[in-house]
Specification:
- By secondary structure, the protein is α/β, with parallel strands linked by helices.
- It has a single domain, classed as Aldolase class I (TIM Barrel, Alpha-Beta Barrel), CATH 3.20.20.70.
- It is built from 18 helices and twelve strands.
- An eight-stranded parallel sheet has the order 4-11-10-9-8-7-6-5. Strands 1-12 form a two-stranded antiparallel ribbon.
- α14 packs across α15.
- Flavin mononucleotide binds next to α5 and α17.
């Protein structure tokens, strides 16, 4: 391919940027043993990678195409905030490998010329069981942040769960979505503040509150290497310290940050009772990975569970999220809906969770890849791809709607 001069210049500028990116770190290490011409090799290799990247959302064939794009184009500190797992990042692989432990049992000669992906949860109908997981600070990846996500969720008519630590307020995001959200709750050390926030959320028509319980502590090393408190490049935009960071979070704009901090370290099941007494929204617990805890959820009147290891960002040395799902479903025995996330990247992944009995699947990083690449159209394409893949596997499996996907479709 012959590039015009202006294209060559902008490609060169991009290559200089990439030299400082996460991608180049890996490439440099990979090419080092080749000796003398290593630098030229790096540039050639980067050039080849650039040529293979998508230029627009519609060129993407799968969600990984968006990941390749952000590896090159995203500011490294932002990339690692998004991409990191805990400790040595092993859970990222564990979550993906978990899906290979379940095999599909296709049924032939079923008329699947019409397939319906829609699902209903807490009285709301969605066009797909692929939902948007709560992820914080999305303006990091695109100026429209959670608003772009809301508009893409509206296009796909799917569920959006909004994080506590967003850049746009629950009111603004609800307006952009044009339908009720679910809200994810990180408690603060100030109950009055948290209670007021819950009431504010409820006033928007939000139907469910998901209490995240899986990160009482964790070890995130990549982001520690890009600490904005010590990294000069970060300080061009970020001021150091908790207070400066939280002023950028819409729900904390007026909080007395001198007397408030985030944290779930002291949290116990009493807090779930307190939430049940405080709100008439459905209360879910996000981050359950054992049958034992699922049973305790039932004892406390929880209305739903999200099986999750926080997208590999909770503890290391755990099981994949999909492998935790069966025992949670067994404990719950159909009494409340169970949604699952962490590592879902393909329509077959979603199908396997539905076959085990999940009511829906959330994605986190894939929609951030779409957002970081092209904003709202990027997220729309990510959802379109996953729904297309799910439809294909449903046709292969002889299942015409979500209800017809059963445990008979899968073997462990
Ligand atoms: C950048 C980022 C920010 C996140 N922020 C939150 C959050 O604020 N609250 C929360 O409960 N989970 C948060 N999560 C976890 C997601 O809700 C979800 O569990 C996870 O991303 C799903 O796994 P996946 O990224 O492999 O799809 C975050 C995940 C990422 C990648």
């Amino acid at each position: 391919m012959r590039l015009r001069r202006s294209e060559r210049e902008s490609r060169r500028a991009l290559l200089r940027f990439i030299a400082a990116s996460p991608l180049a770190c890996g490439l440099g290490a990979a090419l080092a043993p080749r000796g003398g011409h290593a630098q030229a090799n790096v540039i050639d290799a980067l050039d080849e990678i650039l040529a293979a990247l998508i230029d627009s959302p519609d060129e993407a064939l799968n969600v990984f195409d968006f990941h390749e794009y952000v590896k090159v184009h995203m500011q490294p500190g932002h990339y690692w905030y998004m991409a990191q797992g805990v400790d040595d990042q092993r859970m990222l692989t564990v979550n993906r490998e978990g899906f290979t432990k379940f095999q599909l049992l296709p049924r032939r000669l079923v008329d699947t010329s019409s397939v319906d992906l829609s699902v209903e949860l807490f009285g709301q109908r969605y066009d797909s069981p692929v939902f948007i997981a709560p992820c914080g600070a999305l303006a990091t990846f695109h100026p429209e942040g959670e608003l772009a996500v809301a508009r893409a969720a509206a296009t796909a008519n799917t569920l959006q769960i909004l994080s506590t630590v967003t850049n746009y307020s629950v009111e603004a995001v609800t307006e952009a979505r044009g339908a009720p959200l679910w809200y994810q709750l990180y408690p603060t050390t100030d109950w009055e503040f948290t209670r007021d926030m819950i009431q504010r959320v409820e006033a928007t028509g939000c139907t469910a509150l998901a209490l995240t319980v899986d990160i009482p502590a964790r070890n995130l090393e990549p982001i520690a290497r890009f600490s904005r408190d010590t990294n000069e490049e970060c300080q061009a935009c970020h001021q150091p310290g908790f207070e400066a960071a939280f002023r950028r979070k819409a729900m904390f704009a007026d909080a007395d940050l001198g007397n408030l901090s985030m944290g779930i370290r002291g949290l116990t099941w009493d807090y779930v009772d307190r939430l049940k007494d405080t709100t008439s929204m459905n209360v879910l617990v996000k981050g359950i990975v054992t049958g034992e805890d699922a049973s305790i959820c039932l004892e406390h009147g929880v209305d739903g569970i999200i099986v999750s290891n926080h997208g590999s960002r909770a503890e290391d040395s755990g099981r994949s999220s999909i492998e935790c799902l069966p025992e949670v479903l067994e404990a719950v025995n159909g009494q409340i809906p169970v949604v699952v996330d962490s590592g879902f990247r393909r329509g077959t992944d979603v199908f396997k969770a539905l076959a085990l009995g999940a009511s829906g699947v959330c994605i986190g990083k894939p929609y951030i890849w779409g957002l970081g690449s092209f904003g709202q159209p990027g997220i729309e394409r990510v959802l379109e791809i996953l729904n297309r893949e799910l439809r294909i596997v449903m046709q292969q499996m002889g299942t015409v709607d979500i209800a017809s996907i059963t445990s008979g479709s899968i073997r462990m």
